[in-house]
Write a structure and sequence with these properties.
The chain is an alpha+beta fold and 183 residues long. It has helices at 2-8, 39-50, 130-144, 154-171, and strands at 18-22, 53-55, 57-58, 78-83, 91-94, 107-108, 121-124, 173-176.
């Protein structure tokens, strides 16, 4: 049902890095001990393709679900899909010794988190302010004064861009960005 929902619903999720879970789909593609093909595999692969994910290769090929019944086989039904363009996340590990009292084993992937410099200040113009009016007036004057007979001249365009930038900094004010800011 979850696969059908994801496939039939226009899901608006951006920048998916990892999708993992118990998909309850047995298929020879990820379980070499299972000799059959599942019709649900194609739906799952279509969904992961949409999110630009691919099936992660296990570093150690072991089952992900262990049966407590000796007459039932162990299965590979817990899967991990990782971002296609992410070389550092191209595989994961399975730790069968960690399952303890559960019948499922954890799937582990290391995801590096890099320090990011987040801007906490920015220049802005207050809507309907005198500064905004003056900025627009100066901008219109700069556009009117632009010689468009040779717009392929890089220097003229760079000069025009610098005039706009100077005008922006002349009329805008610096504000601090907080969690309540509308950026």
């Amino acid at each position: 049902m979850a696969l059908k929902y994801l496939k039939d619903t226009e899901v608006n999720i951006n920048n998916v890095l990892v999708m993992t879970g118990d998909f309850n789909i047995r298929d020879h593609s990820w379980d070499q001990d299972f000799l059959h093909y599942s019709i649900y595999r194609d739906t799952l692969i279509d969904i992961t393709d949409f999110f630009q994910l691919e099936l992660s290769e296990h570093i150690n090929r072991v089952p992900t679900r262990y049966s407590d019944n000796q007459h039932k086989s162990n299965l590979v039904i817990n899967l991990m899909f990782l971002r296609l363009d992410s070389l550092e996340h191209n595989n994961h590990s399975i730790y069968p010794d960690w399952c303890l009292t559960f019948d499922y084993v954890p799937l582990i992937v290391n995801i590096s988190i890099f320090e990011e410099n987040i801007q906490t200040r920015k220049h802005t113009l207050v809507k309907d302010s005198e500064e905004e009016d003056n900025f627009i007036i100066n901008l219109i004057e700069a556009i009117k004064g632009l010689n468009t007979s040779n717009t392929q001249n890089k220097e003229k365009l760079e000069y025009f861009a610098s005039c706009i930038e100077k005008n922006w900094y002349k009329h805008s004010k610096i504000v601090n960005i907080t969690k309540h800011s509308k950026v």
